[in-house]
């Protein structure tokens, strides 16, 4: 969706397949710097770092070699960065430069948010604005007329799906981050909700 209105601004990147890890890395944060030992000094801004959130997949193109044309092919770690983020560490004309990167905790304002899409028998929930670890290992849903938590499968990236008939019911979510912490968002979605709505919690990892 619109990453800017979702609160990510322009500090975002699409990750190559090896880093994106089938969507498990979506939402994680990385500190990136130009590698001045390997980069052409003309295109490197040494001593500067930028922290980005992984928000997309940079898809591989197997018709091109991974070291000359398609940098997102396995086994290459690659960040396809939003231009303003990229220009913090490199000169635009450089195109692709060697970088050093490190996974770091995400710092976010406010609580975890949930956007609901889909249709009557297919609920798709996008989980975003996740601090600390940034990514979600598992997600469960419980409706107001049930005492049982039901697992939600990963659809793609940070989107989880349920095939249960949950339309219009008050919903609770249970999230476990990839570092093993669990939060319960009781009745975060009120009865009578509609597709396309976003619900902001006051809880954060």
TrEMBL record:
One of its GO terms (biological process) is plant-type cell wall organization. Its main location: secreted. It is a peripheral membrane protein. Keywords: Cell wall, Cell wall biogenesis/degradation, Membrane, Secreted, Signal. The keyword Secreted applies. Residues 121-201 form the Expansin-like CBD domain. Pfam families: DPBB_1, Expansin_C. InterPro entries: Expan_Lol_pI, Expansin, Expansin/allergen_DPBB_dom, Expansin_CBD, Expansin_CBD_sf, RlpA-like_DPBB, RlpA-like_sf. PROSITE patterns: EXPANSIN_CBD (PS50843), EXPANSIN_EG45 (PS50842). Transmembrane segments: none annotated. GO terms for cellular component: extracellular region; membrane. Residues 1-111 form the Expansin-like EG45 domain. PANTHER family: EXPANSIN-A15. This is Expansin. It comes from Aegilops tauschii subsp. strangulata. The lineage of its organism: Eukaryota, Viridiplantae, Streptophyta, Embryophyta, Tracheophyta.
